[in-house]
Amino acid sequence: MSSLTDLAKQQRNAYLPQYLTIVLIISFILLIVSIVSSLAFGSRAVGWNGLIEGLFHPAIDSYDANVVRQRMNRTIFSLLCGVALGVSGALMQAVTRNPIADPSILGVNTGASLFVVSGIAFFHISTSEQYIWFALAGAMITAIFVFGIGSMGRGGATPLKLVLAGAATTAALSSLVIAIMIPRSYVMDQFRFWQVGSVGSASWSSISTFLPFLIIGLLVGIISASALNALALGDEVATGLGVRTGLWRLAAAFAGVILCGATTALAGPIGFVGLLATHVIRLVLGSDQRYIIPISAITGAIILTISDVIGRLLGSPGELEVGVVTAFTGAPILIILAMKAKVRAL
Predict the structure, then answer these.
(1) Quick check: is 346 in a domain?
(2) Residue range 80-106, pLDDT digits in tens
(3) Which residues, at least 6 apart from 179, have a Cβ–Cβ distance to it below 8 Å?
């Protein structure tokens, strides 16, 4: 069985340049489709003339053109959040050597949520700049806690132990979130829309707040790709190749938490995007992080933007929050992955 698997990997590596070209072409086509769809569809559909007027003719003040311009910040924000979640998922899977690692599964989103709701309840925070720092602190502390719990006992941080630690932590932190909200109605009113996960409240201010964290996370993630490939061979082999395993593992984990925490702060705890994006790419291109990380960014942007469009269409004339759509589609896929494959280290 292992010889057949090795043969399949050799054949895939031989055709990797062709696969990579095809994946890039398909990804960019889907990216364009998702952008156009996000600008065109909503409570009111906009035709080609309205799209062209809104995008390329700022002097035209028609209703459709203004609708397109109003949707631009939402579209850009959903793309950026998708990029962040896709890369965060790829980094967390590589660092933990867990093929089903994801910010939502490992409890990082819930940790960020707990700190945000605590900030609202006890420190009266209300701006995106305040949200982002509280969410980052919660995401980092939770990531360290889950990895520490998952590393206890024999065998260290195995994929199954990390998932179980993440699930237990998520349950405990979710209970704390509810305990803080229930006696404080004003906190519940402010928190309930954010908790679902949405890109509908996007503004140019939130985008500008988000960009520095996105850039830092992306740069660190891309730089650490080669080191993560070495870490996949095992710490002893990686050390023999001259890789400082502790430093690069910490750097990649830091980048993943920054990307996840910043996204959670501004868009809410949107789950399964990183899991889906990285799995799709790994099935086609293998486990080379030099390809997985950048293409997961594109795939994550596509998944989140399309999910947002689907939510608007299904909930018309209102909308179904994107966090509901990604959970509705991601949970069955996670169940299928767990049924069809053994959860083993990468």
Answers:
(1) no
(2) 999 999 999 999 999 888 777 788 778
(3) none
Which range of residues forms the domain containing residue 225? 2-340
Overall domain count for the chain: 1
Judging by beta carbons within 10 Å of its beta carbon (0-12, 13-18, 19+), is residue 283 exposed, middle or buried?
exposed
Nearest-angstrom CA–CA distance, 261 and 82? 13
CATH number for the domain that contains residue 276: 1.10.3470.10
Residues sharing a CB contact under 8 Å with residue 24, sequence separation 6 or more, in sequence order: 295
Decide if 211 is inside a domain.
yes
Decide if 145 is inside a domain.
Answer: yes
Q: For 54-83, write each residue's pLDDT tens digit.
A: 888 888 888 889 999 999 999 999 999 999
DSSP string, 246-284: HHHHHHHHHHHHHHHHHHHHHH----SHHHHHHHHHHHH
The pLDDT-based confidence of 280 (bands split at 50, 70, 90) is confident
Q: Name all contacts of 331-340 with Cβ < 8 Å and 24+ positions apart.
A: 331/272, 333/272, 333/275, 333/276, 334/100, 334/105, 334/272, 334/275, 337/99, 337/100, 337/279, 338/100
**Mean pLDDT, the chain, whole residue set:** 85
Q: How many CB atoms lie within 10 A of CB 333?
A: 14
How do residues 213-225 score in pLDDT, each as one tens digit?
A: 999 999 999 999 9
**345 in a structural domain:** no
Peptide bond into 212 cis (omega under 30): no
Task: Assign 3-class secondary structure to 67-136.
Answer: HHHHHHHHHHHHHHHHHHHHHHHHHHHHHHCCCCCCCCCCCHHHHHHHHHHHHHHHCCCCCHHHHHHHHH
